[in-house]
Amino acid sequence: MEAALLERLETAVARLEAAVASGASLASAAPRDLDLPAAADPAIVAYEEFIAEAVGRLNIAAEKIGGKVLDATKVLAEAFAVSKDLLVQAKQLQKPASMADAQGFLKPLGDCIAKATAMTEGRRPDYFNHLKSVADSLPALAWVAFLGKDCGMSFPTAHVEESWQMAEFYNNKVLVEYRNKDPDHVEWAKALKDLYMPGLRDFVKKHYALGPVWGPSGGAAASQPKAAAPTPKAPATKAPPPPAPPSAPLFTTEKSPKSSQPKQGMSAVFQEISSKPVTAGLRKVTDDMKTKNRADRSGVVASTAAAPATPEKTSRAGSFSFKSGPPKLELQMGRKWVVENQVGKKTLAIDDCDSRQSIYVYGCKDSVLQVNGKVNNITVDKCTKFGIVFKDVVAAFEVVNCNGVEVQCQGTAPTISIDNTSGCQLYLSKESLGASITSAKSSEINVMVPSGATDGVL
Q: Which residue intervals are annotated with compositional bias (Low complexity) in the record (predicted)?
């Protein structure tokens, strides 16, 4: 790396010396890529080495998994490359005066974050926790937008730590789900955490604790690219200046006309009161104008209004809505039970299941599902007033984006996760008391355990 940079510097110096010797100007002799001093900055070189090592390790782990995990990891690598380019550009641009002025400068990074967020939207995709970990971690790269202590965001090191806390919740879910199943997923989750904590945090603390380094104050603005020098034109003949307006005399004996502007303040109020009688403008109310004497005002509301159009069926659970589709209860590809859009069904049951299968419940309302067997994991998503009874899960039981759900575990569950849910009643058996329960952005959660006096009685 150092040898390559040294060679590029020597080449640039040789071209400059040759241009000076031939009498050419420095502006014409300089190569077009004289961004070299910015790219050769020790901090930026260190950032390139950090990205190559940390993101490279994450990419190797993602290639073993493939699919959407690899796609999300490529978006992450693109975002880190964009952040490096922004540091190089910042050294050549004038520091923005405010965050609004820096919007154009930060747009490429914002596009990468939006691309990662779009991968998590819609119906819950496969490897949702992986995708969510990536999408929630990328805002940490916005530390390059730090413009000072009064810009409205935390200092760069603190910003990286705060941003990782949002992604760590889903990253821990990956670790819990795959710790005894697939070491490739575990390695990916550990590499993602090391990328930010301590990787990016320590780098920013060492090289950019006070934010990026900006160019001189006379450079181009960060919100717009450098403009090319305008082509000189022949001087145009100046037009004669317009004649000066006639000067008004300082004093005049004529009376000035009344001002068209109304008086303001309390003087206008008193003038209005004194100039008009108190009852001016009021109308006399006769007997036939009174409501009690009018035949067309009976006080009865007519029911002639047209019935409102039937709205699209939606279910509210917290702050989200979903479209109601056809009901489903089926086993897909022999590995995943899908229970969708069940409304008012109290006798739903899954009997023929095994520990390699998973269950995904989506968009159910006023229904109860009973799982008679051991499964790998269960996810309840966007359900309202829904009850579920299950025996054993190998990995985890999750409740996401729900409202008013009741969950009863009759066997064992190593992990129970409740996310973005309002109103959850959780009943644990004696065997599941050792379960790890995590919650985020949820309210009204009650956990019932067996009493010590009578075995199995809540």
A: 219-237, 298-311
**Contact of 411 with 427, CB cutoff 8 Å:** no
More confident of the two residues 73 and 317: 73
Looking up tokens 């917290």, which residue turns up?
318
pTM: 0.46
Q: Give Cα separations from 296 to 191, 202, 272, 305 (angstroms).
A: 78, 79, 39, 18
Burial class from Cβ neighbours inside 10 Å (0-12, 13-18, 19+) for residue 387 reads buried
93-94 vs 422-428, strand pairing mode: unpaired
Contact 414, 396 (CB under 8 A): yes
Sign of CA dihedral 60, 65, 69, 75: positive
Sheet containing strand 392-400, strands side by side: 328-332, 336-340, 358-362, 374-381, 392-400, 415-419, 436-440
Give the count of beta carbons closer than 10 Å to the beta carbon of residue 94.
Answer: 17
328-332 and 336-340 strand pairing: antiparallel
Q: Report how far residue 378's alpha carbon sits from residue 415's, in angstroms, rounded to the nearest whole number.
A: 11
3-state SS assignment for residue 63: helix
Q: What is the mean pLDDT of residues 247-252?
A: 40
Cβ contacts of 269 within 8 Å, gap of 6 or more: none
Q: Which two tokens stand for residue 75?
A: 């978006």
Closest C-alpha to 124, from 365, 393, 383: 383
Q: Identify which of 156, 153, 152 has the alpha carbon closest to the alpha carbon of residue 144.
A: 156
What does the alpha-carbon distance between residue 192 and residue 194 come to, in Å, rounded to a whole number?
A: 6
Cα separation, 356 vs 354, in Å, equals 6
Helix, strand, coil tally for the chain in percent (to 5): 40, 20, 40
What stretches of 242-370 show up as alpha helix (H) in DSSP? 266-275
What is the maximum span of the chain, computed from C-alpha positions, in angstroms?
109
